[in-house]
């Protein structure tokens, strides 16, 4: 069971998230917060495994609140929820140590996928956030060759496609190979780069500007 705190300045959005999670057996909303004071009390008291944090315009929660969560409930995983995923906001949040970010444009399936992914200890970015992060593109194979020369050319190409958000079956179709072969490539890439999940690989690709 994943315990969660919902922190949002808008009651309607908090109610919507609670309604969405009400029938999820593996997630329990233990508290909610409308401001920083309520959030501090909630995370200190409940030590939730997950905090869904509104991060947006002035008057909403901020990087200071992220720091408070890290201090008072260090095991909590944080999902940032924003209606304005500008690049400066995303970068500021990533620099604070948060590695999961979705927007309020996400549908319920995406929100649930984010929660389930983060609950497993993995990173998650919705497609809108990835689009913002991927604005600057360079020659991906050449860039990755300099960063990870131990990868084969095909492994470099697979890494590039994963970084752009493609699924293994889409990569298999692109190269006319089996999905088993794609998964084998991914397994080898993870081992060579010392990564634990495809979400880590996406972040690696973004951070190294290979997509």
TrEMBL record:
Among PANTHER family, the record links this protein to:
NITRATE_NITRITE RESPONSE REGULATOR PROTEIN NARP, TWO-COMPONENT RESPONSE REGULATOR
Gene Ontology biological process terms, A to Z: phosphorelay signal transduction system; regulation of DNA-templated transcription
**4-aspartylphosphate modified-residue sites:** 54
- Which segment of the chain is annotated as a signal peptide? none
What CDD domains would the database entry show? Answer: LuxR_C_like, REC_NarL-like
Q: Which Pfam families match?
A: GerE, Response_reg
Gene Ontology molecular function terms on file: DNA binding
Claim: Mitochondrion is one of the keywords in the record: no
KW Plastid (keyword) present? no
UniProt-listed PROSITE patterns? HTH_LUXR_2, RESPONSE_REGULATORY
- Annotated ranges, domain HTH luxR-type: 144-209
Q: What protein am I looking at?
A: Response regulator transcription factor
Keywords on record: DNA-binding, Phosphoprotein, Transcription, Transcription regulation
SUPFAM superfamilies cross-referenced by the UniProt entry: C-terminal effector domain of the bipartite response regulators, CheY-like
Q: Which residues form the Response regulatory domain?
A: 3-119
